[in-house]
Design a protein that fits this description.
Length: about 260
């Protein structure tokens, strides 16, 4: 081998080793990485501090029903685009008004349009929150967590598909909590996105179909509450779907105990 070739080979080995070392070295965590979570916290604080929820309620929909309906009819595509982007923002910032927005959207656009629109927008917004939490503090938790958290993380990851579908389908936990916790427990992005997309469909369909049929109730001044919409039968059906999703976990647990 010539001196030039030998020198080139040695340099290549040094560069390769340096590259491997750089790739294996974890990125240093800094407090600046918390800004996405701080933005979410600030948005939620302002929302409640300024009492903005009064602008997104059934009474507001009832008061502006005719005006908003006329605007949607005149500018359907633009109105739907505004709704779609706004819904992404509501979910990404964890502002707890998505239920009423879904009801209103179905009233003005119809259930057939709103169901796919809300499912897509909710999935995008939830994914943004998921990655914000994962990059902000997920790495730090993974490095500094104690043995109990590591065991919890491994158990959740082992059955992440079942857990994610269960959490999405059953209306037990707040939506923003289900966006954050999986990020801390190391759920894969693919699992999170797919489970969110399909998992929110049943609940979205319930609210959208209800929203599309409340025009008569609005005109009559009838009261519509979440309790009216989520009747015991509907809750039982959603819990049944969630139970199907988590059945493999229960079966594996029972089998392990008997072994």
């Amino acid at each position: 081998m010539s001196p030039e070739a030998a020198g080139f080979e040695a340099a290549s080995e040094v560069i390769g080793e340096a590259g491997m070392s750089a790739a294996e070295t974890p990125t240093r965590w800094t407090p600046w990485r918390l800004w996405p979570l701080l933005l979410i916290a600030a948005a939620m604080t302002l929302f409640f501090a300024l009492d903005l929820q009064r602008y997104v309620s059934l009474s507001m929909i009832q008061a502006r029903h005719q005006e908003w309906q006329a605007y949607v009819q005149a500018h359907f595509a633009l109105a739907l685009g505004i709704f779609f982007v706004g819904y992404i923002g509501i979910i990404a910032l964890s502002i707890p008004i998505s239920t009423w927005v879904t009801l209103g959207g179905a009233l003005f656009f119809g259930a057939a349009v709103i169901i796919p629109t809300v499912v897509c927008a909710a999935t995008i917004g939830a994914t943004l929150t998921f990655f914000a939490a994962r990059t902000s503090i997920g790495d730090l938790l993974e490095r500094r967590a104690g043995p109990w958290f590591v065991r919890l993380e491994k158990g959740f990851q082992r059955d992440q598909w079942s857990y994610m579908f269960f959490l999405r389908v059953t209306p037990i936990f707040p939506f923003f909590v289900v966006n954050l916790v999986p990020a801390f427990l190391g759920v894969s992005p693919t699992c999170f996105i797919v489970a969110t997309f399909f998992g929110v469909m049943p609940v979205t369909a319930v609210f959208a179909l209800t929203g599309a049929s409340i025009s008569d109730a609005l005109e009559a001044g009838s009261a519509i509450t979440i309790a009216n919409i989520l009747s015991p039968k509907i809750i039982a059906a959603l819990i049944g779907l969630g139970t199907l999703a988590i059945t493999p976990v229960v079966y594996r647990y029972i089998r392990h105990k008997r072994a």
